[in-house]
Design brief:
alpha/beta; Glutamine Phosphoribosylpyrophosphate, subunit 1, domain 1; Rossmann fold; eight-stranded antiparallel sheet; seven-stranded antiparallel sheet; 17 helices; globular; binds fructose -6-phosphate
Length: 587
């Protein structure tokens, strides 16, 4: 999704802005732009395309000046055209603004600003911020006051950064992240610490309703009511910035291949923190669990693994949560799962739960995220930066940690902790099938529709496998509970169908085998993911035998690899699927 970077210091700003935007490219975007201030003059260049392409054609990094802002835009309001790219300028070209989020009342503000004589150059909601700042600066002659008055007028979610030609850099946040990077004698403002982590590991995480103003003499913080506030510097881990592809051709492939190590790291938790987390669950009367996309699939698995430990948890998709929030009260707990910890749907669920008096727990990969900061207690999955837009290693880490928590508080254990070594070995064995899975992908690459079937614990893995195939390869894929086939979807099966079946030799084996025969007799080709050889499969991906309840952790791996190789077969870029963003900060 959109990324923000701002810089004020002694270095050539545009070079640092471009570098920061490149570090945040994984978040997804369609256009790019920067603005700098040189000798009191505001200079701006922007266009549609990737940072490297636009930089090559417009030489963004040649803009002079030691103060500037940059942005990559993921279109929401207004088409993907140069004029809608950020930064946006106020009428007199003395103020430029970059914005993440959505200004819900922008129609009303735009009408009002039109009537006061402002002219607009884009279709975006964001441009109103530049004109509001200009309007209030004309009235007050004071940058701090114009920031406060502007923020008070905005409805929606926002993090924005503005430069004034008087050499001032400002930022404000409400429901979108914004972080100050504190260097030796310079400052960064960014939506993601990766934007400045190459230069400083000292960060100030702004809270909701915070404003920061950086001028030549100092840095100061205010809230939207105009009160001066103080904010602490946090030392962030340098390793977060340590993300390169190594020997792999894509981040996605590298991250898939890290999973035998990352699942173990997710169980390496501080004992006290883990106990606190577990106690909040055991003290609760009702436990709800939420997430979006892949993280919601983790929630579906959690329902089953907690139920094996005799604990009832109720999964609710975050985008649907608001319609069920009435179920929660002060005796409830909401456990939110999110890799980024910034997903708007998840954040809204958490806020509704808090309003109902419920406690909030979270499982995140980014400990400095808004979700972690809002939670009564949180656990980190510790899987390192996940750059590929599609969630892979964060998923297996989330579920490994959920197994661990369920085992610690449940009456019956799934045995994950004791099986760490077995699991590491089993995942490694599946990863060694990489080239076999590539050849299966080559056999099925022409298919228009792929169905993935399984029962019980395997069903959420079918949903997750289908999501990976859709987003990486752009082939339509559907995950289904195998027993539901006869209730309708069987009508779709013919000799053009590809059906992947998750079929280990466990308690689901016999029933799923009957379903396979039904499909096979209608001409479909079967890809079996199983630990038992069977002639019924047209292609088999053989997984190792492990403890029955832990199969989800290994059977997702061949599906991730299959999705990856299908995307390569279809000439898609698996790291940056079209239309998608890593951190979905809009509702
Ligand atoms: C799919 C994918 C998305 C995310 C979803 C939630 O591969 O990556 O479905 O899982 O947008 O993101 P987080 O976990 O950051 O809240």
């Amino acid at each position: 999704m959109c990324s923000i970077i701002g810089y004020k210091g002694n270095e050539h700003a545009s070079t640092l802005l471009i570098e920061g935007l490149k570090k945040m490219e994984y978040r997804g975007y369609d256009s790019v732009g920067i603005a700098t201030i040189k000798s009191g003059k505001l200079l701006i260049r922007k266009g549609v395309g990737k940072v490297a392409e636009v930089n090559k054609s417009l030489r963004l990094d040649e803009l002079p000046g030691k103060l500037g802002i940059g942005h990559t835009r993921w279109a929401t309001h207004g088409g993907i055209v140069d004029s809608n790219a950020h930064p946006h300028l106020a009428c007199n070209s003395t103020i430029a603004v970059v914005h993440n989020g959505i200004i819900e009342n922008y129609h009303e503000l735009k009408d009002e600003l039109y009537r006061s004589g402002h002219k607009f150059n884009s279709e975006t909601d964001s441009e109103v911020i530049a004109h509001l700042l200009e309007e209030y600066f004309e009235i007050t002659g004071d940058i701090r006051l114009s920031m406060i008055f502007t923020c008070k007028r905005l409805v929606g979610s926002f993090a924005f950064v503005a430069v004034f030609n008087s050499s001032t850099l400002c930022g404000a946040r409400y429901d979108e992240p914004l972080i100050v990077g504190v260097g030796h004698d310079d400052y960064f403002l960014s939506s993601d610490i990766l934007g400045f982590l190459n230069h400083t590991d000292r960060a100030i995480f702004l809270d909701n309703r915070d404003i920061v103003v950086i001028n030549d003499s100092d840095i100061s913080f205010f809230n939207f009511d105009g009160d001066r506030i103080s904010r602490k510097i946090t030392q962030v881990a340098w390793e977060l910035g340590d993300a390169d592809k190594g020997k792999y051709s894509h981040y996605t492939l590298k991250e898939i291949h890290e999973q035998h190590q990352t699942i173990v790291k997710s169980m390496d938790q501080d004992k006290k923190n883990l106990e606190k987390f577990c106690k909040i669950i055991t003290d609760a009367k009702n436990v709800f669990i939420t997430g979006s996309g892949t993280s919601y699939h983790s929630a579906l698995i959690a329902k089953q693994i907690f139920s094996k430990s005799k604990i009832h948890v109720e999964p609710i998709m975050s985008s649907e949560f608001q319609y069920s929030a009435d179920l929660l009260d002060e005796n409830s707990v909401l456990l939110a799962i999110s890799q980024s910890g910034e997903t708007a749907d998840v954040m809204h669920s958490v806020k509704s739960a808090k309003e109902m008096g419920a406690k909030v727990l979270s499982i995140v990969n980014i400990p400095t995220s808004s979700l972690a900061r809002l939670s009564d207690s949180y656990l980190e999955v510790n899987c390192g930066p996940e750059i590929g837009v599609a969630a892979t290693k964060s998923f297996t880490s989330q579920i490994a940690l959920l197994y661990h928590v369920a085992d610690l508080i449940g009456k019956k254990s799934n045995g994950i902790f004791a099986s760490k070594d077995v699991l590491t070995k089993a995942i490694k064995q599946v990863l060694e099938l990489d080239s076999h899975i590539e050849s299966v992908a080559n056999q099925i690459k022409g298919s228009k529709d792929i169905y993935i079937l399984g029962r019980s614990l395997h069903f959420p893995i079918c949903l997750e496998g289908a999501l990976k195939i859709k987003e990486l390869s752009y082939i339509h894929a559907e995950g289904m509970a195998a027993g539901e086939l006869k209730h309708g979807p069987l009508a779709l099966i013919d000799n053009n169908s590809i059906v992947i079946v998750i079929h280990p030799n466990d308690s689901t084996y016999g029933d799923t085998l009957s379903n396979i025969h039904t499909i096979k007799s209608r001409g479909a080709k079967i890809v079996g993911i199983s630990n038992k050889k069977d002639e019924v499969y047209d292609y088999q991906i053989t997984i190792p035998t492990i403890n029955e309840s832990l199969y989800p952790l290994i059977e997702i791996v061949p599906l991730q690899l299959l999705a990856y190789y299908l995307s390569i077969c279809n000439n898609a870029n698996p790291d940056y699927p079209r239309n998608l963003a890593k951190s979905v900060t809009v509702k």
